[in-house]
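Whiteboard transcription, Tuesday session. T.W. wrote the structure tokens on the left side:
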């Protein structure tokens, strides 16, 4: 059983309103009942608000792990509980799109993220190749990266995809 606690949906928080993301996975041994998990979630929320007064918190108790977790600070991707390895350039392109949901990003912008080598004899399809590999590695979630004809690519969030973003603390 998994507890996704203090979850952030991209684009929901303002700059002045910090959010904390914590994903706790509890093995399903039968020893943990839903009441215990709810108590754990409440304790984590109390601790979070003690550390970051005014932080927005959300609690979600689910019977299984999040199907897809994109952990931007850790540069990680977990699909159905298994880590997915993206190359440096693939992660740069994917994270750039994830940071800008519902926004068409031109290939020329994505090319500057590490896919910039242009072979004059072969043309410039490197971004398309990297996006194709990203989609393939995302499996059934490959359609969250959409081709916008004549404009580039776009990240279309899905409720089953949990994005973990960096927490920026304000200094006093």
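and on the right, the sequence the group agreed on:
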């Amino acid at each position: 059983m998994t507890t996704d606690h203090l979850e952030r949906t991209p684009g929901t928080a303002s700059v002045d309103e910090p959010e904390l993301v914590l994903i706790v996975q509890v093995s399903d041994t039968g020893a943990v009942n839903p009441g215990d998990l709810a108590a754990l979630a409440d304790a984590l929320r109390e601790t979070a608000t003690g550390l970051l007064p005014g932080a927005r918190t959300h609690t979600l108790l689910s019977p299984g792990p999040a199907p897809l977790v994109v952990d931007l600070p850790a540069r990680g991707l977990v699909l159905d509980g298994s880590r997915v390895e993206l190359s440096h350039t693939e992660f740069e392109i994917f994270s750039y799109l994830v940071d800008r949901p519902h926004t068409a990003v031109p290939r020329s912008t994505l090319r500057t993220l590490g896919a910039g080598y242009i072979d004059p004899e072969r043309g410039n399809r490197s971004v398309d190749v990297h996006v194709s590999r990203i989609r393939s590695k995302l499996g059934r979630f490959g359609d969250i990266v959409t081709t916008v004809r004549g404009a580039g690519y776009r990240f279309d969030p899905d409720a089953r995809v949990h994005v973990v973003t960096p927490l920026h603390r304000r200094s006093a």
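Someone added at the bottom: The first helix runs from residue 34 to 51.
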